[in-house]
Amino acid sequence: MTITKLSKKQRLAMSWWKSERGRKLDAVICDGAVRSGKTLSMSLGFMLWACGSFDGGAFAICGKTITSLRRNVITPIMPLLKDYGFIVSEKVSRNYIDLTLLGRTNRFYLFGGKDEGSASLIQGMTLSGVFFDEVALMPRSFVEQALARCSVAGSKMWFNCNPDNPSHWFYNEWIKKAQEKRALYIHFTMDDNPSLTQELKNRYKRLYSGTFYDRFVLGKWTASEGVIYPMFDEKKHVYSGDVECERYVISCDYGTVNPSSFGLWGLCGGIWHRVREYYYSSKRTGISRTDEEHYAALEELAGSCMISKVIVDPSAASFIECIRRHGRFRVIKADNDVVTGIRHVGTALRQGKLRFHESCRDILREFRLYRWSDKSGTDAPIKENDHAMDDMRYFVMDMVGQCPDDLIVMSVER
Asked: Which of 28, 35, 104, 270 is positioned for an S-S bond with 55, CB 3.0–4.6 A?
């Protein structure tokens, strides 16, 4: 499999290091829209540069998690590397890949930079280069620790990302200071991927709205503002009457001082319906409830339905243990990635994959009140009127499926 069609920007992202100017640069930064082909062209260029410039070198390839890194970078690039003549030896259990080209062998370590503690994983290494996939999703401490490891003469740094908040540290420290950092900056749009059809471009334009449209379709670094789910429409998303569901799941946002919100979801005709809900606020009643009392409410919410699983706020350790102790429900911890979850909920709403019974008054109320905070330099919702929103987000992240943002579309010849 070989690439047969590349845009000017994709070719530049792959081969910038070959030019006289590129040899004087320390880094390349590619940002912009999803589906623009920047990841595949950059990752192939990174490995060609590494194996053409070093022998016996150590390199780091970094993603938010090892799983996402394998999905977004490693799996798509492997067939291309073999077609370019690389000999590939991967040690999955030890998270590294040895690549040999024209008698030169180099090692590429895989790292996940998901939180502040990740910096310790890469500390102490000596690297000849580093590649960051979705660098805007990684903590600054991890990125800067990895950069500090690039101490070999001739080492270079490769960054790609989709835009985020304009107050983001990477935008201000690297993109706005690209010239000062001796970095080549390449901004991508969907039109920079010649293999992306107009039909596919239109499809992904329909997936997003508001801030996420500006970032993922237009490729702009823009601040979040206003109502978080402007695509929610009561005429489209609210229903009355009963539905016959083939499967049931419950999602829970648990609180003691804060409200607890549980939603019963049923799958009918490929659409998930919030059939009914439990919402308890001690501030309304003046009385707090125990884990056992909340569990009794969970049993009542489930009724006679066969519940596939109960998805619970991962911080609610005591309530999770309470559910397990009773033995009726299979309980799992929710994925609490807030901004990613919000984006997936927005996509599910736009695609018509979620509906809400008119009796679910608290989630309908929160839809109108759930807003972005304007006090933070990063994306964050206001921590009010968000409990039903949170239990819905947990449900969507686990059950409805995530947006295929990491799909790579390029023309190839077999």
From this structure: 104
Report the pLDDT value the prediction gives residue 380, as an integer from 0 to 100: 85
In 156-176, which positions are buried (b, 16+ CB within 10 angstroms) versus exposed (e)?
A: bbbbbbbbbbeebbbbeebbe
d(CA 129, CA 149): 9
What pLDDT was estimated at residue 120? Answer: 81
In this prediction, residue 408 has a pLDDT band, given cuts at 50, 70 and 90, of: very low
Helix, strand, coil content of the chain in percent (nearest 5): 40, 25, 35
Sign of CA dihedral 78, 79, 81, 86: positive
Structure tokens belonging to residue 304: 């006679």
Residue 10 identity: Q
Q: What are residue 316's phi and psi, to 5 degrees?
A: -90, 65
How many CB atoms neighbour CB 135 within 10 A?
Answer: 26
Sign of CA dihedral 317, 323, 324, 325: positive
Find all residues with CB under 8 Å of 251, minimum gap 6, and list them. Answer: 262, 263, 265, 310, 311, 312, 334, 391, 392, 394, 395, 398
**Taking every pair of C-alpha atoms in the chain, what is the biggest distance, in angstroms?**
74
In the predicted structure, residue 1 carries a pLDDT above the cut 70 = no
Name the DSSP letter for residue 71.
I
- Residue of 342, 395, 334 whose CA lies nearest to 370: 342
Identify which of 247, 242, 251 has the alpha carbon closest to the alpha carbon of residue 278: 251
Question: Do 179 and 396 touch, CB atoms closer than 8 A?
Answer: no
Tokens of 241: 């009457």
Beta strands 411-413 and 183-188 are: unpaired
Residue 242 reports pLDDT greater than 70: yes
